[in-house]
């Protein structure tokens, strides 16, 4: 019911809505190099990839991974 309500709201506002399977590890994958290691954080909001050294906010890393999963 909740998902249907979100879909209806998105449609009313002309926004794109899609569900992402929970199996996609958006928080564990580096959006820069694709490494599947949990990023080290100095604080809870910063993603630092131990493989390539990419640093970005955790939410942006997850958003980039979501975007790539839709390709």
Give your account of this protein's structure.
The structure is a single chain. This protein is of the alpha+beta class and 71 residues long. The chain has two helices and two strands; from the N terminus they run H-E-E-H. The chain has helices at residues 2-12, 58-69, and strands spanning 46-48, 55-57. A two-stranded antiparallel ribbon has the order 1-2. Strand 1 (46-48) and strand 2 (55-57) form a beta hairpin. The radius of gyration is 15 Å and the shape is elongated. The protein starts with a helix and ends with a helix. The model has no long low-confidence stretch (mean pLDDT 83).
Structural class: alpha+beta
- How many individual β-strands? 2
Major sheet: 2 strands, antiparallel
Task: Walk across the major sheet and give the strand order.
Answer: 1-2
- SS field, number of helical segments: 2
Q: Unreliable stretches, pLDDT < 50, 5 or more residues?
A: none
Order of helix and strand elements from N to C terminus: HEEH
- Molecular shape: elongated
| Share of residues in helices | 25-40%
Strand-residue fraction?
Answer: 5-15%
Cα(first) to Cα(last) distance is 28 Å
Rg over alpha carbons: 15 Å
**Mean pLDDT over all positions:** 83
